[in-house]
Amino acid sequence: MAHEVVLTETLVKTLEQFETQDTERIINKLEDIVDFPDHFLDRLKNHPGYKLRVGDFRVLIDWDKDNEVIYAIDAFERKKEYRELGELPYPT
User: Fold this and answer.
1) Fewest Cβ atoms closer than 10 Å to its Cβ: which of 8, 18, 33, 45?
2) How many Å apart are CA 28 and CA 1, to the nearest integer?
3) Could you give the domains of the chain?
4) Mutual orientation of helices 20-32 and 9-17 as an angle, nearest 10°?
């Protein structure tokens, strides 16, 4: 069964700052993961969230497996350190 993907306001604001082609790639990848998210998402170390790799970008994900909802929290360039992410704004 397909999962629902929810984009946070933070992610929407971040995507507005990216180049159009990068934003489209991220949105397309989020659409691709709804059927098999465990194939695309990698668990973060020392953090309760997941990451989605999209070229040179990473999308921070909170995956509610019980309710089949994927919260796309924020996106950033790969070179940014994960230590800067902080806590997830949604329950895990």
Assistant:
1) 45
2) 19
3) 4-79 (3.30.2310.20)
4) 140
Helices (H), the chain: 9-17, 20-32, 37-40
pLDDT (0 to 100) of residue 92: 47
How buried is 60 (Cβ within 10 angstroms: 0-12 exposed, 13-18 middle, 19+ buried)?
buried
pTM metric for this prediction: 0.83
Strand 57-64 vs strand 50-54: parallel, antiparallel, or unpaired? antiparallel
Cα distances (Å, whole numbers) of residue 7 to 51, 57, 86: 14, 16, 18
Amino acid at 4: E
CB 41 within 8 A of CB 48: no
